[in-house]
Amino acid sequence: MSVERTILIVAWILIILALLLLVPRKKFREAQLAFLIKQMITWSGAMFVVEKGWIQFPVREISSYGSSFTYDFFVHPALCAIFIAHYPEKRSILNKLGYYALFCSGMTLIEVMVEKNTNLIKYTGWTWYWTWIGLFITFVISRLYVRWYCKLIH
Question: What is the pTM of this model?
């Protein structure tokens, strides 16, 4: 088995464990909604970026799908669910911005390491800061949507 396939399997295992351990039961619905909205945003954004030729995914799970199924449909949405479940709603704006920066920076750092050391991601017209900005925007949209939806049903 290749290093890339091993990384994908380990990612699935770690993310499943993270979801089980880090999403409190009382925040499950918000986390689930965040997962689904982030999945939709990530899928459409990834397809756009791949179609433009800015990023390539040489090793992927589904050959007819140009992007990474693991990242688009599971890892990014799951991390967004965890992000929403622990969002510091009652903290200062500085704490909130720091929380965004921490998640976006951590995810970007991991992506850059994967891009440099594996064939899972290859930047062809992309840079790390576009990843960071994209994550920030999609986290904001996901959080606003979850907040709006939860107010709507309560």
Answer: 0.93
